[in-house]
Amino acid sequence: MELTTVWFVAIATLWTGYFVLEGFDFGVGMLLRVLGRTEPERRAIVTTIGPVWDGNEVWLIVAGGATFAAFPEWYATLFSGFYLPLFAILVGLIVRGVALEYRGKRDEPEWRARMDAMIVVGSVLPALLWGVAFGNIVRGVPLDADHEYVGGFGTLLNPFALLGGLTFVAVFVTHGAIFLALRTTDDLRRRANRLASRASVVIAVLAAGFLVWAQHLRGDLASMILAGAAMVALSGGLVANELAREGWAFVGTTLAIGLAVVSLFVALFPDVMPSTLDPGSTLTIVDAASTPYTLKAMTIITAIVLPLVLLYQGWSYWVFRKRVTVAPVSVSAS
Amino acid sequence: MDGLDLARWQFAITTVYHFFFVPVTISLVAITAGLQTAWYRTGKEKYLRLTKFYGKLFLINIAMGVVTGLVQEFQFGMNWSDYSRFVGDVFGAPLALEGLLAFFLESTFIGLWIFGWDRLPKLVHLGCIWMVVLGTQLSAYFILAANSWMQNPVGFRYNAARGRAELTDLWAVLTNKVVLVTFPHTIFAAFMVGGAFVAGVALWHLVRRPGTDGDVFRSALKIGASVVLVAGVGVAISGDLQGKVMTEVQPMKMAAAEALYETEKPASFSVFTVGTLDGSKEIFSIKLPYLLSFLATGRFDGEVQGINSLQEAYEQLYGPGSYKPNIPLTYWTFRLMIGVGMASAAVALWLLWTTRRGRAPARWLVWLAAPLPLLPLVANTFGWIFTETGRQPWLVFGLLPTASGVSPGTTSGEVITSLVGFTALYGVLAVVEMRLMLRAIWSGLPEADVGVGRPRTGGSDDDESGADDEPDPLSFAY
Q: Is residue A330 part of a domain?
């Protein structure tokens, strides 16, 4: 395989890992005030992602850094072109991260409520806008001959991209609810299960609509098969949720998100930023790539380090595998 | 103000702000790990209590470092897309490696450390915080290697057809002589901040709460002040080496640091100058003869090149234009960095002396509790403002002017939105963070058994993992 292809796969993998992992963090964040009726419940909800959310977010940072290193033109065009959505995503992630770490540091209900609001907003906003951003990448955006984005902010708010945003939010809510059902006990667990169940039809319709439209815009046989597999996995997950088989339900949504993101990247390949103006202005992996030397050096280092990363991240999930129970009283965290 | 100025202000604000949290994180995590190691080895309760106390302050701080670091990863692409295109092949690699090697390590093991009290075996839990220490050090190294390449580009060739710099030797980038001196300088400078923070907090408690945990805070004061002194010596030695490397690779920065307009041999070090810094008029100045020659070249009679002759040489090399940085800014930030840093070391020395052999610190000393950590912190800030503005007008020295790196397609409105947005958000968060920090400091040392299992009702019958025996991990951090 060409090194440029290897790095396209690597970056697709990083984004896939990011959306699978941060997807349930976002979902849990969005459901914090919906499923958590009392402070001890909300505290249990936050605790399910407490040890892992930061590590999950690093998948995004590494995706950004790897894109910078392997495809500088892609990094430059994407983040300068999608300036305002990215700014809003960063604000959301900052607000959410601070709130997750600070909510337990004070006991007043007003403080907790404010932090909860920040967690909810900081989960909805990035989920929505990543959907919009990926919708636009797949759909294509106006790029000039220098691969410079020449559209405005409004250009990014087209129907397909907005559907992408809604789909991301909806799927992450389900993914998060199923994660909570898997990670909590008793009443909270049952309520999370029921919420995922009630939302299932809406989620399935949105996801199917988005994937079919994406295939219509830009797809080949491989991406179509992957999108179909994603829908099968999603349906399987939702059925497993109905049967209260939480582990299988979570495997289902995990596979669904993973396969759907991979399907989008397969549809994109070998382009990275299709142009809606002159097809010649489309940014491809070849235009965007770094030199073979850089790609080779990065490949060697990644091949050594990534397995270690997966090993210790996996170990941390193993350490915190026990379900989180709702503490009887809200006790001081200080 | 045009788009370039806006983009520069935006970068300056977000980066300087981010770096308020970085030195504290780097040093406080290591000091916390040291305290926990002391507890592990001696079993003394006071080390456990100090670990939890300073560990909590460390966590309040690093949360801000993590979230503001997100902006750092993406703003090159947002505001500096042509820079990203030009350098990505070289500069991207250390950035990606920082994420892969350092950030995964830091974030995962911090989670394990926070929630792993009482759940992991003691030694494994101790290992977790040391992994975080390793992560912060790796992170510092890679990002400084990236910055050092902007100061002194090595290990690359210029591809005229693609209009970009291309990596030819990654090892050369990672062993750039600038990073080899900048890394120890930055790390030692960070430890001055962390040590001063530990000492300042302990000093406040010793004076304001003389009856409460006096012995424990006395230990903390000595540990903190000693760290400041040792790190201060390290900063001085590494800074001296750095000055010599800088004179070699960026002579204009050294000349600007001294506002040295004409080449001098031997050159004297200006401690203080009143007058116009363009050299036309000098009202009053204190100069130490031979010192600049020694700082810059290692010899007391060495020649130090002046701004004017360098300007002429650069015009011949790079064509017409000004190659001078903002002289008053570089001159004063260089002096303030050194002066303020030395002042904090002096305060630390005084504290050690005045509390020797069981003496209680004088009450008025409490007024030094806050300035003590703030002095080395602003010295860090001055150092970075000096080294970054001293590189101007270059973004990558000798290769890419700053004006050529800015995003061509980004509008002023967009940059203003993010400039105002980030500044306002950061301002609010600074208040929130400071309040939490002060509360945590004010509430004092936790009891030694905090974090050990609290009674709870968990373990309903459908709880497959049996939470009855599961201690509450939240009591420590969440």
A: no
